[in-house]
Write a structure and sequence with these properties.
Helix content is 13%, strand content 52%. It is mostly beta strands and 132 residues long. It has one domain: Beta Barrel (OB fold (Dihydrolipoamide Acetyltransferase, E2P)), CATH 2.40.50.140.
Length: 132
């Protein structure tokens, strides 16, 4: 039976991404902050921000520069959850992170989708000149 491991998360980049090369492949590790809000039992709005580490490799890492993604950018990351174990100071530790399959700069896409406003006509149009 095939198991599903997929995540889509939207949030703001917490620091400038830095693309490095490891064994000849581009690599980028960064963190996004994703805030969720809800109404508490008393009706007061509450929120919580999760900080999620993200890792991108190859063309996906390179796309960060192409899309002009920087600190504070609102991005959407689609990928899967990964975990790793390591030892630090003699203590076993583990971490969970998102391995990116795609990254999109949300605000840049929105600004590209907005049509340029048309300037109003230079002169007034007399309603009697209209053909209808």
């Amino acid at each position: 039976m095939t198991q599903i491991n997929s995540i889509i998360i939207q949030g703001n980049l917490t620091h400038e991404p830095e693309i490095k090369t490891l064994n000849g492949r581009s690599f980028c590790s960064f963190q996004i902050a994703s805030t969720r809000s809800w109404a508490g039992e008393d009706g007061e709005e509450k929120s919580h921000t999760d900080f999620l580490p993200v890792t991108a490799w190859g063309k996906i890492a390179d796309s960060i520069t192409d899309q002009e993604i920087s600190k504070g950018s609102l991005i959407a990351v689609e990928g899967n959850l990964r975990s790793s174990r390591y030892e630090k100071d003699g203590e076993q530790r583990s971490r969970v992170f998102v391995s990116a399959r795609s990254i999109d700069n949300i605000l840049k896409k929105k600004s590209q989708d907005v049509p340029t406003p048309v300037a109003p006509p230079a002169e007034e149009i007399d309603p009697d000149d209209l053909p209808w």
